[in-house]
Design a protein that fits this description.
Layout (H helix, E strand, L loop, with lengths): L2 H9 L1 E13 L4 E6 L3 E8 L2 E5 L2 E5 L4 E4 L4 E6 L3 E12 L2 H10 L8 E5 L4 H17 L2 H25 L4 E2 L2 H12 L6 H7 L4 H12 L3 H19 L4 H7 L5 H12 L3 H15 L50 H10 L29 E5 L4 E6 L2 E6 L5 E3 L3 H6 L6 E2 L16 E2 L8 H7 L3 E4 L2 H7 L5 E3 L7 H12 L2 H24 L7 E7 L2 E5 L8 H7 L6 H7 L7 E4 L11 E6 L10 H5 L1 H4 L3 E5 L8 H17 L5
Parallel strand pairs: 14-15, 14-17, 15-16, 17-18, 19-22, 22-23
Antiparallel strand pairs: 1-8, 2-7, 3-6, 3-8, 4-5, 4-7, 6-9, 9-10, 11-12, 12-13, 19-20, 20-21
Helix pairs in contact: 3-4, 5-8, 6-7, 16-17, 17-22, 18-22
C-alpha cells in the first residue's frame, strides 16, 4: 500500500485504543508464537532484541518501531535487558461512502493490516506521545480516555511524517501465511472460518479465496487435514484411547472424530491402527511372504457417513451444539458476505425475508405453542408464522423447502424437502429422502449450496444456522431442544398449515404407546428394568436420562419402563441429556433385567470379555443390540419406528424372572 493511501485511510478512520503496556524482558528471555490480539505498535525503549513478525526478522535496537496486524505471530529473542511499549488499537473506515469506494477499488486489502519496521529519525517525539498515552490510559476516566484518543491521532501523525521522510515501505501481512501458522499452533482449539477471518481482520470470503488459491484447500479443510495427520501419528505411536486422541486433536466428540477420520483416511481410526501396526509387524519379519507393498491400497470404506455422527452431550433430544469461545460458530459465511454486500444498497429499511420483525403475534389464528404460531393471508398466498425471532412471512404452500436436522417431523407431515442436512443411512426415514440434496452437517450447512437451490422456505434448529441462512429465504428457527416431540411437531406443522395432520400423528402415537404398554404388561415385561449402554472394552456409557437418545425416549419416556434403581434416581431428576462413563468392573451394578446396547461399525466385540459375559441379562439372552443410526433421531417418525422395534425385541427375548 502506498503511503499516501495509508494517510487517506487514517483520515477516514474511527479509532479505539485497546491497551497500552510497558514490558521489560530479562537478557536471554524469549517470547514464542505470541498472537497479536489486535493491530499493534511495538516501540523499543532500551536494550536490543531480535523480533520476528510472521516469520520476518527485525533487529530491534533502542528506539525501533514495529507495526503488526491483528493475528500476526510475534517472537522475541533478547540479547540484553529489553524494554518496549506495546500499543493495541482497533481502527476501521468510518464513513460509508469512503468505505464503499475503498472496497470497490481494493476489496482484497485491509487498510490497517500493515507490517513494517523502522528506526525513527526523531525518536523522542514518538516516545513523548507514547508516554503521555500511557499516563492518560492509566487514569481511565472518561475525559482521560478522550485524551488518549486525541494523543493517539497525534502519535499517528508524527509517525506518518517520519515514515514519509524515510520513504519506508509498508507491506500487507499475508493472511494465508498467518492462517497456516495459526492452524499449526492452535489445531487443538475450536476454529471456524469466521473466527480466522476475524482474527486476521479479513472477510471470510476473501480469506477463503486467498487460502484456496495458494494452497488448493479451504482453511477448514487444511485444519481437518492437520488434525487427521496428528491423530494418525498418535494412533501409531501411543496407546491412548480414541477419546483421548480425539480431544488432543480438537474434537470434543469421539464419534464425530471417527466420522471425519474415516472420510479422509478411508477406514475408521481403530481399523487404521490395527492395519498399520500389523504392517509394521510384518515388516519386522522379512521371511514372511510379502503381499507386495507396491500397489497395495485400502478399499474406500467411506460411504458418505460415519456411524457416530455429531452427538455432543447425548444425541437425540436435545442434541447439544459444540461450545466454543465465540461459540460457536460453526461454518464460514463464504458466499453470504457477497450476497449481503450486493443487497445492502437500498434495502436498509426493509426487513430481510426471514428476519424476525418483532411484531405482535396475538392475532395468530393458531397459537400452537409459546414459540410458534401461524396466520394465513389468502390474498397473497402467504402465511405469517410467529416464532422466537418474531413474525416471519412464509409461502402458504412452499415448494422448495430446506430443512436441517428436523427432517423426520417434516417427512411425517407428508412434505419432501429439496435439501436437508446429512442423514444417517440407518435413519428410519432415510428411504423417504431418496434424491434429496445433502447440505453437510446440521450445524455447518453449505450456504453456497443453499443459495444455488433457490429455496422458498428454510427451517433450522439453532441460532447459529438461523444467522447463517436467514438472508437467503424466509427462515424459521425451531428451538427444538426446549420442546417435547409433540410441541416440536406442532410448531413445524403450523409453518405449513398442517395442524390437523400433526394432531392426527400425535393421537396415533399416543394410541400406539398405550397398546404397546398393554402388550408388554400382558407379557410380564413392562415392570422389568431396562438399561441402555454404549461403548466397548475400555468402558461403557450408561444412559441416565430420557433425553439422551439411543432408545431412552422410547423406553423411559413413552413406554414408561424403569432402569435399575441406581440409574433411575438420576433419570428422575435429570432434565437434559446425561450418562455416566463406567469401567467394565462396575458395569454389572447398572444393568437391568434387559439391556439395550447401541452398536455401530467397528464396535468392540464383547463376546470374550468375562465380565460382560457374566452379566445375567447378557448370559441369559436378554441383550438387545440397537443400531446407532436408527436410534439417533427423536422426531415423531423415528419414535414410532423405535417403539415398534423395542416392543418386538422385548417380546422375542427370553423372559426375565
Amino acid at each position: 500500500m502506498q503511503l499516501d493511501e495509508q494517510m487517506k485511510c487514517w483520515n477516514h478512520a474511527a479509532v479505539k485504543v485497546l491497551d497500552i503496556r510497558r514490558i521489560v524482558m530479562e537478557a536471554g528471555a524469549q517470547l514464542s508464537s505470541y498472537t497479536l490480539p489486535a493491530n499493534g505498535f511495538i516501540y523499543t525503549i532500551r536494550g536490543s532484541a531480535q523480533l520476528q513478525l510472521d516469520g520476518q526478522t527485525y533487529k530491534a535496537e533502542r528506539f525501533y518501531m514495529l507495526h503488526g496486524a491483528k493475528g500476526s505471530s510475534l517472537d522475541i529473542q533478547t540479547n540484553e535487558e529489553f524494554e518496549y511499549i506495546l500499543l493495541y488499537y482497533r481502527a476501521f473506515l468510518a464513513f460509508p461512502s469512503y468505505r464503499k469506494k475503498w472496497l470497490l477499488a481494493q476489496p482484497e486489502v485491509a487498510p490497517f493490516s500493515l507490517q513494517y519496521g523502522f528506526t525513527p529519525s526523531s525518536p523522542l517525539g514518538l516516545l513523548r506521545y507514547l508516554d503521555e498515552l500511557e499516563g492518560a490510559w492509566v487514569q481511565s476516566g472518561s475525559l482521560d480516555l478522550l485524551h488518549t484518543k486525541s494523543l493517539f491521532y497525534q502519535f499517528i501523525h508524527e509517525m506518518m511524517v517520519q515514515l514519509a521522510e524515510q520513504e519506508i515501505k509498508t507491506e500487507l501481512a499475508d493472511p494465508v501465511k498467518q492462517t497456516l501458522r495459526y492452524i499449526q499452533n492452535h489445531y487443538r482449539e475450536q476454529v471456524t472460518l469466521d473466527f480466522l477471518a476475524e482474527q486476521f481482520n479479513y472477510s471470510s470470503r476473501h480469506l477463503s479465496m486467498q487460502f484456496k488459491r495458494q494452497t488448493g484447500h479451504s482453511p477448514i479443510d487444511y485444519l481437518i487435514q492437520t488434525r487427521i495427520a496428528k491423530a494418525r501419528n498418535l494412533l501409531l505411536r501411543s496407546d491412548a484411547t480414541l477419546s483421548e486422541i480425539a480431544a488432543e486433536v480438537g474434537y470434543s466428540d469421539v464419534y464425530y472424530f471417527s466420522r471425519i477420520f474415516k472420510k479422509h483416511v478411508g477406514i475408521s481410526p481403530i481399523q487404521y491402527q490395527r492395519k498399520m501396526r500389523e504392517e509394521a509387524r510384518t515388516e519386522d519379519r522379512p521371511l514372511v511372504i510379502s503381499e507386495s507393498s507396491i500397489g497395495r491400497r485400502w478399499k474406500s470404506g467411506y460411504i458418505d457417513y460415519e456411524n457416530h455422527y455429531q452427538y455432543i452431550d447425548g444425541g437425540s433430544t436435545p442434541m447439544k451444539r459444540r461450545k466454543t469461545s465465540s461459540s460457536m460458530i460453526m461454518v464460514a459465511l463464504l458466499s453470504i458476505t457477497m450476497l449481503l454486500a450486493a443487497c445492502s444498497s437500498g434495502t436498509a429499511t426493509t426487513p430481510a425475508a426471514g428476519e424476525g420483525t418483532g411484531a405482535s403475534s396475538n392475532n395468530s389464528s393458531t397459537a400452537v405453542s409459546s414459540d410458534t404460531g401461524s396466520q394465513t393471508n389468502k390474498d397473497n398466498e402467504t402465511r405469517t408464522v410467529s416464532t422466537v425471532k418474531g413474525d416471519v412471512v412464509v409461502p402458504a404452500n412452499p415448494k422448495r423447502v430446506v430443512v436441517l436436522y428436523l427432517q423426520g417431523d417434516v417427512v411425517a407431515l407428508g412434505i419432501k424437502p429439496i435439501a436437508t442436512s446429512e442423514v444417517f443411512n440407518g435413519a428410519a426415514y432415510k428411504s423417504e429422502l431418496e434424491g434429496v440434496n445433502s447440505l453437510g452437517t446440521w450445524f455447518e450447512p453449505n450456504p453456497e449450496a443453499v443459495i444455488d437451490l433457490d429455496p422458498d422456505l428454510i427451517i433450522v434448529p439453532s441460532e447459529e444456522t438461523y444467522t447463517l441462512l436467514k438472508d437467503i429465504a424466509p427462515t424459521v428457527y425451531i428451538p427444538y431442544e426446549k420442546m417435547t416431540t409433540e410441541e416440536r411437531l406442532q410448531s413445524i406443522a403450523s409453518i405449513f398449515g398442517k395442524e390437523q395432520e400433526a394432531e392426527t400423528l400425535i393421537n396415533n402415537l399416543n394410541s400406539k404407546v398405550e397398546e404397546s404398554k398393554q402388550t408388554l404388561a400382558d407379557a410380564g415385561i413392562l415392570d422389568k428394568t431396562v438399561s441402555i449402554v454404549e461403548g466397548g472394552l475400555k468402558g461403557m456409557v450408561v444412559v441416565e436420562s430420557k433425553q439422551y437418545g439411543r432408545g431412552s425416549q422410547a423406553l423411559y419416556e413413552y413406554l414408561g419402563m424403569k432402569a435399575p434403581e441406581v440409574v433411575q434416581k438420576k433419570i428422575d431428576v435429570v432434565s437434559e441429556a446425561g450418562g455416566s462413563n463406567l469401567s467394565m468392573e462396575v458395569l454389572p451394578e447398572y444393568i437391568g433385567d434387559y439391556v439395550f446396547r447401541s452398536v455401530y461399525e467397528g464396535a468392540d466385540n464383547l463376546t470374550d470379555d468375562p465380565i460382560w459375559s457374566s452379566i445375567p441379562a447378557v448370559k441369559e439372552g436378554r441383550l438387545i443390540e440397537i443400531d446407532f443410526d436408527f436410534f439417533y433421531y427423536s422426531d415423531i417418525y423415528s419414535i414410532n419406528k423405535q417403539i415398534d422395534f423395542v416392543v418386538e425385541k422385548l417380546l422375542a427375548a427370553p423372559r426375565a424372572q
